[in-house]
Write a structure and sequence with these properties.
single chain; 17 helices; two-stranded antiparallel sheet; mainly alpha
């Protein structure tokens, strides 16, 4: 047993990686909570951990991680899907078109179908006809935008739809989906009895860490749309299907080595088609979420690049559902800072991110020390060089943010609106060293051409 343990430890030291388990994640979460509370107290920025901010962050993160899940399914089968934005746009239009006529849940179903049709088109182009994946994705983005603009002017700006409030750039209003509030803790109702809002009371005291935890939990348990709850459950469901079922294994094998999968009897074309259509369905659901929960109608430009941010969240999560969800929450949180707190809250985040970057620099330094004794091959030397480069980059970025924090009291509005996109670039830059996409992702496959 000791020999096995030593071998595992040696492998961990050789590649500089440590496998994280649930206690590690709980410890990291607690540390981030304490750090957020500290930043809130230092900068007197209560919206940083308020229940309103957390609720807005969750609402803004859901369409991002739904689009990211769509990209995950597609790319795990070996098909790059940058058409998530276009499929999302199709979901917003079809969801609003059906939603204002037959109710929000029919709108959700129609949005899923609209996105799935976009996924089917992408699968036909890339899998059957061998079109370059990037070209096909760009074409679907253009098609989705142009088609919905045309259909909006054709349908929403005439007849009954126009009388109900539609126009050339928007649909009539869609009825909202029912929301849920946890009784007792967050002030929900049990029968006809209104329970006290214990978490709200704790949050209003602004105690260090305690009130912050109460605000976060309250934001996650009050006025949550039923569709949000359903969407959250899709993250573990996707993990279970892709990593715990034969169907998921076949899809992932197509993304790693389709010719090996073919030799084992896997219907590669069928698996790729299924994965890409499911990808489109997830993107369509993200679009339907925008018109039934985030805003009660379709509007031109409503997706606002969320499909691309979802793709970035998928890459940040290393093509895995858990990391994807974490990245989406990060992007949703920075977007919520823009909506709820403005320049003051984003100013507090400068200090928060600077401290995190210092932690990243320390971690990269420790990783470099672990790699140094094994740096005898070109690959190991490259890993060591990347670790040192990451540490230096993180330290320089942290120093710049600290200077910015000390020299200002508020972040200008122009930069506040750019915060989510800046976060996307920063996260991808820091996460790029540990990424490993499916080996056959983006490669053209033809049945029977194995060499």
């Amino acid at each position: 047993m000791s020999a096995v343990t030593e071998t595992v430890a040696a492998k961990q030291a050789a590649n500089g990686k440590i496998r994280l388990r649930w206690p590690h994640y709980l410890l990291i979460t607690s540390g981030l909570l304490v750090l957020l509370s500290l930043v809130r107290v230092i900068d007197d920025a209560d919206p940083v951990t308020s229940s309103g901010t957390v609720s807005a962050a969750l609402r803004l993160a859901v369409p991002i991680f739904l689009a990211g899940l769509g990209g995950l399914w597609s790319e795990r089968s070996g098909v790059i899907n940058i058409g998530l934005e276009g499929m999302m746009i199709l979901g917003t239009w079809t969801g609003a078109w059906a939603g204002y006529q037959w109710g929000p849940w029919i709108g959700v179903l129609a949005g899923i179908i609209g996105g799935a049709l976009g996924g089917l088109l992408h699968a036909i182009a890339t899998v059957s006809f061998g079109v370059d994946h990037i070209v096909s994705g760009v074409a679907i983005n253009i098609l989705g935008l142009g088609l919905t603009q045309f259909l909006a002017g054709l349908i929403f700006d005439t007849g009954q739809a126009k009388a109900l409030g539609g126009g050339p750039r928007q649909s009539p209003p869609v009825d909202p989906i029912m929301t849920l509030t946890l009784p007792v803790l967050s002030g929900g109702k049990i029968g006809g009895w209104q329970s006290p809002d214990w978490l709200g009371s704790l949050e209003n005291h602004h105690w260090f860490a305690v009130s912050d935890a109460a605000g976060i939990v309250r934001g996650l348990t009050s006025d949550m749309s039923l569709l949000t709850l359903v969407s959250l459950l899709l993250v573990p469901l996707s993990f279970l299907i892709l990593w715990r079922t034969p169907f998921g294994l076949r899809i992932r094998s197509c993304g790693e080595d389709p010719y090996a999968a073919e030799s084992l009897g896997v219907q590669v074309y069928r698996m790729k088609y299924a994965a890409v259509v499911i990808s489109g369905a997830f993107s369509g659901l993200a679009g339907a979420f925008l018109v039934t929960v985030a805003a009660p109608l379709y509007q031109d430009g409503q997706t606002n690049g969320r499909g691309f941010i979802g793709l970035a969240a998928m890459i940040f999560g290393n093509w895995r559902p858990g990391g994807l969800a974490a990245g989406s929450l990060l992007f949703g949180y920075t977007d919520a800072m823009n909506v709820r707190g403005g320049g003051q809250s984003v100013h507090a985040l400068l200090l928060f991110v600077a401290i995190l970057l210092i932690g990243v620099a320390l971690w990269q330094g420790v990783r470099a020390n672990r790699l140094r004794p094994q740096a005898v091959t070109d690959l190991a030397r490259r890993e060591l060089r990347n670790a040192y480069l990451g540490a230096v980059l993180a330290l320089v970025s942290a120093a710049g943010l600290l200077v910015w924090f000390m020299m200002s009291e508020i972040v200008p509005g122009e930069l506040v609106s750019f915060t989510p996109h800046l976060t996307t670039l920063l996260v991808l830059a820091l996460a790029s060293q540990r990424l490993r996409m499916p080996a056959a992702n983006g490669l053209q496959y033809r049945r029977g051409e194995a060499r």
